[in-house]
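At this stage, I wrote out one protein, both as residues and as discrete backbone shape codes, and that material follows here.
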Amino acid sequence: MVAISLAESANKIVSEKNVSFRWTYIVLPVAILLLSVILTAFFYRLLPDEVAYRFSGGEPTHWFGRGGAIAWVIILQLVFALLSLAIAYIATSASRRLQIGETDLNRSLFTIMGNLMALPQIILLFAMLDIFLYNAYQIKLIPLWVFALIVMVLGGIILGIFFIQTIRQFRRLHGKSVQE
């Protein structure tokens, strides 16, 4: 009896519409990329020809050409956004091939998977802003490692909450199938 209801539930899920790519799966990485481009455009005219990018004790120790520094930051942000796109696309394609129907649970998982690249992008955006502010206004923000630690801890907490909610949702869905 339980096996029949589980099979019926599986057929019901497969019969739902196929999984399709949604821009919400990569909204954070794309937004951070756009914010990086906007900040770069704003700060470009304020930056000197030689940009300090590595600091020790709040003082610059390494310098880079303005164009090169900007190119590296934008290229890295673009790489992270493209990785996010690839992850979301591969996940949705695999779901279509495996004939997994589109459910709230799948959409949530794809959203987390695609937007996960936002964590290193946020750290890179902070590093970029720190470099720009120092070179334009001689303002130094908190150390990068402190900010990275804060982002990783908060990201871990958010992911933990998400996974707890996902497990609860799966148990509710699975519990209904077993009880029917």
In short: The radius of gyration is 22 Å. The first helix runs from residue 2 to 15.
